[in-house]
Inverse folding.
């Protein structure tokens, strides 16, 4: 990879303990600009915990998380609150879909604009020109994102009424509304059929190439992982057991052992 | 077939009730004439009543379940799809071909069902009525006219105006609490504490400094807001039930302080002789003053509706609703939950403070007995019964809950009983309240970004 530029996300020896359980053990990971990086591993390997540590939902027990937004200075994220992490340019989706069920599709995306807008209580009540302009801007941008994602037809549908695949895509749209430079997708293809998975793959590629947003994804569907990722990290029992390109990971005996178990010698 | 089962079940319940109530409703020992009266007729009444009640109950419950299962179809298939794909998880590199071929092929079949769009939910009839532009304007005009001439009608007494003013006061309280409970989803059981803060600020400010109503109105609101913020800071990291209990405790502390700190609040005897609101020094008789407060309340209610309506569809309002829906996701989308909660809490308290000042001016007397937990429960019931997050619902809820007991004085002994019954019924048959909150619809016409 391009070693000259500073990585967008630079995680150094991240460790997370839950009481006596070490869920993450000295995990280091980098995401370069324009990359799609996959994080894989068996269930319970600590992938989602890793996401939660990076996005500030958990406070890591050790290690450092640095981000370098394009054109900006390096910043340490440890100890920041989740909404501050999002404001700094990291947006995520959830493994089990967490949409705002009773809100419309458009409103879901509009929430993503929250951290990029400023109107307060007074502005809301008085509806001054500046607030109106901002509100208009929120609606326009949100709609544009929905058009890109392909959900422009359902703007006024309640999120809970969307089909499953669309809900997953709406989560991505919502995350994109926060203007991230890095998107963290937690099992975006879970529960999708092959057709939807293909569409998702194309969507992730488009996000990366056209929007210039790097992607870090957790995924179990190996087809999408292998075809889309520039690099792959493999976690097992909280430890990084392998890292490399798809072809390298595919052949790595340690990875195969972690997934399929070891043959017992007679 | 189910009808016969229903009748049998209802019969069993009727018999059981007849048996249960037998000792108190049928047997009566007449101690004067030393005889036992057997009132078999009562038993018949109980039997018939419980039979019909049980039958109606079953009928409505069945209807509700049928409609619920109709709505739940997409969710059901969604689960199925997830299950079908399930085995595809975690198949390592060696198993990829298998996962791609067989498993996902199966889930594809299920998915066909999933992609059929669910039928759009029917809008509540009240909203359809309000959306109809031709109907809406005359309807609002009639309401405005009725509200204006109501106090001058020949048959409206001071008492009538008073109870309507009271209902309007609760409309304001309900709308204020609606911000906290309905929009932001924070179960607040101590709302009455801020109402008390408002009322006592006017009473004490007048008592000590002779400050008049119009100065006390913003001051009371401000004090209540500050109280809201002061309380909000430590407790807003709590969620759900814990928040409810702490707010409840806070309300009780406020009431007990008011009751026991004689030097400050004059204890249970309260503060009397608070002046009614003035109108440029114009002297009014009791009837005139009542009408004045009535119009004042109408104005304040309109102001509240205006503000809450604007807040609801603003950046802040959306953040509140998102917070109610899913706090974790809301924070991950860049909303500062503490700030959002605190604003909701503070704004809710502001309206309680305003209402409190008006309350003190209206009754000319405050004491801690007006600010018991029952009041909080009442305001919360208005919000829940009317419909959380719906302005129209809260207004209807307030009028129903405040005016019904006034006009049904004959049943005043059973008031709480009826109240509980209505609440239970509502929670089972219409948990979203009389009018459910409806999200704003955006229309895009000439390409992207054209908002009408």
């Amino acid at each position: 990879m391009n070693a000259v530029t500073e990585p967008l996300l630079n995680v150094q020896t991240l460790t997370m303990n839950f009481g006596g359980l070490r869920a993450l053990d000295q995990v280091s990971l980098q995401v370069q600009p324009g990359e799609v990086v996959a994080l894989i591993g068996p269930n319970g390997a600590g992938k989602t915990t890793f996401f939660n540590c990076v996005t500030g939902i958990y406070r890591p027990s050790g290690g450092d998380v640095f981000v370098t937004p394009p054109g900006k200075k390096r910043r340490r994220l440890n100890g920041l609150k989740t909404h501050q992490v999002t404001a700094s340019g990291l947006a995520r989706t959830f493994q089990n879909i967490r949409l705002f069920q009773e809100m419309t599709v458009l409103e879901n995306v509009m929430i993503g604009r929250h951290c990029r807008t400023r109107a307060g209580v007074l502005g809301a009540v008085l509806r001054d020109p500046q607030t109106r302009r901002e509100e208009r801007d929120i609606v326009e941008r949100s709609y544009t994102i929905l058009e890109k994602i392909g959900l422009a037809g359902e703007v006024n549908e309640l999120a809970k009424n969307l089909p499953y695949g669309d809900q997953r895509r709406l989560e991505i749209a919502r995350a994109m509304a926060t203007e991230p430079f890095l998107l963290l997708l937690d099992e975006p293809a879970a529960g999708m059929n092959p057709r939807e998975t293909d569409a998702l793959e194309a969507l992730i590629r488009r996000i990366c190439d056209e929007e210039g947003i790097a992607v870090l994804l957790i995924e179990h569907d190996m087809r999408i992982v292998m075809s889309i990722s520039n690099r792959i990290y493999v976690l097992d029992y909280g430890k990084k057991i392998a890292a490399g390109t798809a072809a390298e990971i595919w052949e790595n005996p340690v990875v195969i052992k972690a997934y399929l178990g070891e043959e017992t010698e007679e | 077939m189910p009808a016969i089962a229903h009748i049998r079940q209802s019969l069993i319940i009727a018999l059981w009730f007849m048996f249960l109530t037998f000792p108190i409703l049928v047997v009566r020992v007449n101690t004067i004439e030393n005889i036992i009266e057997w009132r078999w007729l009562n038993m018949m009444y109980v039997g018939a009543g419980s039979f019909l009640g049980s039958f109606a109950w079953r009928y409505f419950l069945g209807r509700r379940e049928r409609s619920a299962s109709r709505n739940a179809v997409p969710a059901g298939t969604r689960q199925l799809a997830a299950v079908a794909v399930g085995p595809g998880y975690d198949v390592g590199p060696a198993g990829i071909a298998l996962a791609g071929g067989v498993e996902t092929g199966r889930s594809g079949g299920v998915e066909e069902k999933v992609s059929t769009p669910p039928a759009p939910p029917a809008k509540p009839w009240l909203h359809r009525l309000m959306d109809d532009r031709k109907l809406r304007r005359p309807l609002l005009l009639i309401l405005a006219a009725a509200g204006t001439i109501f106090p001058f009608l020949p048959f409206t007494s001071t008492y009538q105006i008073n109870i309507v003013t009271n209902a309007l006061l609760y409309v304001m309280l309900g709308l204020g609490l609606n911000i906290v409970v309905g929009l932001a989803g924070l179960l607040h059981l101590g709302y009455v504490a801020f109402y008390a803060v408002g009322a006592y600020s006017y009473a004490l400010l007048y008592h000590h400094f002779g400050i008049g109503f119009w100065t006390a109105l913003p001051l009371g609101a401000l004090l209540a807001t500050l109280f809201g913020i002061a309380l909000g800071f430590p407790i807003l990291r709590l969620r759900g039930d814990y928040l409810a209990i702490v707010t409840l405790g806070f309300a009780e502390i406020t009431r007990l302080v008011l009751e026991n700190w004689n030097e400050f609040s004059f204890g249970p005897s309260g503060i009397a002789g608070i002046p009614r609101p003035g109108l440029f020094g114009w002297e009014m008789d009791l009837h005139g003053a009542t009408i004045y407060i009535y119009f004042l309340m109408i104005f304040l209610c309109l102001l509240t509706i205006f503000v809450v309506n604007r807040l609801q569809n603003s950046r802040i309002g959306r953040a509140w609703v998102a917070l109610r829906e899913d706090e974790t996701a809301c924070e991950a989308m860049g909303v500062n939950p503490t700030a959002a909660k605190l604003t909701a809490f503070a704004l809710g308290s502001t309206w309680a403070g305003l209402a409190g000042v008006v309350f003190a001016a209206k009754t000319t007397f405050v004491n801690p007995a007006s600010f018991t937990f029952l009041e909080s429960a009442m305001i919360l019931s208005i919000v829940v019964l009317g419909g959380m997050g719906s302005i129209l619902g809260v207004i209807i809820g307030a009028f129903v809950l405040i005016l019904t007991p006034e006009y049904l004085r004959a049943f005043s002994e059973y008031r709480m009983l009826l109240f509980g019954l209505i609440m239970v019924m509502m929670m089972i048959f219409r948990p979203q309240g009389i009018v459910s909150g409806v999200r704003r619809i955006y229309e895009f016409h000439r390409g992207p970004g054209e908002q009408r």
Notes: Chain A touches chain B through 79 residues (CB under 8 Å). DSSP finds ten helices and ten strands in chain A. Residues 1-89+180-266 of chain A form a domain with the Rossmann fold fold (CATH 3.40.50.300). Chain A has a mean pLDDT of 89.
